[in-house]
Amino acid sequence: MKFGYFTQLQTPKPWRENEEVLLYKEAMEQAVYAEAVGFDYYWQTEHHFYTEIGHSSAPELFLAALSQRTSKIRLGLAVVVLPCNHPYRVVEYISTLDILSDGRVEFGTGRGASAYHIEAFGVSPDDSKELWEESLEVICSMFVNDPFPGWQGKWYPNLIERSLVPKPVQKPHPPLWVAGTQPSTYAEAARKGLGILGFNATEPDEIVPSIRAYREAMAECEPVGGYPNHQVACFTICNIDADYTVGRDKACAAARWYAGDNNAPLQQVRFSSLTGEYYKEKAAEGRRPGVRESVLRRDNEELIRDGLVIGGDADSVCRGIEKWADLGLDQLMFMIQAGNTPHADIMRALDLLGSKVLPNFKESNTVALGA
Questions:
Q1: Could you tell me the pTM of the whole model?
Q2: What is the set of domains in the chain, with CATH numbers?
Q3: Does the CA dihedral 181-187-190-191 come out positive or negative?
Q4: 170-224 pLDDT, tens digit each
Q5: 238-277 b/e with 16+ CB inside 10 Å = b?
Q6: Which residue intervals of the chain are DSSP H helices?
């Protein structure tokens, strides 16, 4: 099983002087060290207007800088919000990043995490699914065909023939992924030949139907791109310390902040919508429905026991990982830079994960659930 380091560059207030400068410098140090200790992937989100919760608004630039400081770790966009980005530009910067990184890009896509984000770009949440789907088809055509023959569709009615440059190292394009949480999205991803980035924020057993739907739908695959990328990656918040209680409490504090138990003003509006029906069920109390409750109704020990959070000492973290590995994952993504976790604690956690945990799983084979 592979391991990913996932971040959205959280920075709760009150802020230090030059907070965002320090945030980015520390994030780069964390990313470089993640490669050094044995992580296989580095994933960064694309978020806009997410004060405190996500300051990663130009991940392609961060990853370009990271590509010059690393040599092995895969560089993942998690995800490019296609409704807010023109296909020509996406293909150009993905290809450029692939060249700069010597072919290490992982191209994640999505419709947008919230209406608060995409509506500022003039996109209605009710249109975001169709727009993502058409945009992905256009982008794949741009990668596969030279010259791109043009496109006449609903959302892009008049894209003209052009030869896009530069071309990526990975032919005809980097591996394709999509973000998802529902079994229907997992199945659709498999049918399109997309890897799934599962941001479910739940206990492992609850994601079993989604993984089963993905594995079963693989047989119906008609790749939207040049080849299928059938992989399942899931997400969890993690921390580790030599002392079990310290590591547990750090991980759980980060998880509670992430789930919405925080004072960030954005938390009260980021799931509201000006125009769309899709996000209305997420608007109540300014949080993702179910996530806040599932985290806050448990104490720290229950969060670890039930697998919503991975934390504690090395033995506890290994047991937490085993719960996910048993599902037949291809990759588990750790979110360590979360909430109020300081830089020094993140670096210490990376060191312990690299020396005490990751080597135990490097040779683990994934198993298709239900096979």
A1: 0.94
A2: 2-360 (3.20.20.30)
A3: negative
A4: 999 999 999 999 999 999 999 999 999 999 889 999 999 999 999 999 999 999 9
A5: bbbbeebebbbbbbbbbbbbbbbebebebbeebbbbeebe
A6: 19-37, 59-67, 87-100, 115-118, 128-144, 183-192, 208-217, 244-258, 291-296, 300-305, 314-325, 343-352
